[in-house]
Every structure is written in C-alpha cells, then in structure tokens.
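User: Some background: our group keeps a shared notebook of sequences we're curious about, and every so often someone picks one and asks for a predicted structure to add to the entry. Today it's my turn. The entry only has the sequence so far, pasted here. Could you supply the structure so I can complete it?
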Amino acid sequence: MDINNIAAQAAAKIDAARDKKVNAVRTVAASGVELSEAAELLVAAEQKYAKDYAAALRSDWTESDLRGFGLDAPAKKAGGRPRNSKTRRPASGQPASSSGENGPVE
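Assistant: Of course. Here's the predicted structure to add to the notebook entry:
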C-alpha cells in the first residue's frame, strides 16, 4: 500500500465531486440570469403592446375590431401617470372624507 497514492486518489475524488457541484451551481446561476433577462424583456414587450393597443383604440378602432384581427386586449393597461387620490373629486353630495383627522363628519 502506497499512502501517497491513496491520498492522491482521495484528493482527486474530492476535487471531482467539488467541481461537479460548482458546475451545477454555475449552470443554474446562468439559467437564473437568462430567466431574469427574459422576464424584463417580457415586461417591456407587454408595456409596448399595451401602448400600441391603446394607440389603435385612439385611431378609431374598437376592441371588437381588434379582436376580429386576432389581437387580444393587453393583460395590463398601458402605464401612465397615476391618479392622485387626494385631488379626485368626491361623488356628488358626499364629503371628501368620511373619517378624517378631525373625526367623522356629522
């Protein structure tokens, strides 16, 4: 029995197992990066589709017309400036807030 030979074989086996594990992590990390990039591209494409769909509606096409062409309404509406809830008018006859900082309106 050659102790140095046995130790070298053991070290080679450990190195091979470590390399296999490191390569598995490297592969899954690369897939994760691809997935993140694809998700970002999808979000951008969905936003562009929503804008273009809205532009088609503003060009006097109806949703029914577009559906007839095989174009479905976007899952999300085109982004825009969000409405400010503080500047929206309350419904007629109702106070701006039914329970504000000063308590309920009587």
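Suggested note for the entry: The first strand starts at residue 99 and ends at 100. The chain has two helices and two strands.
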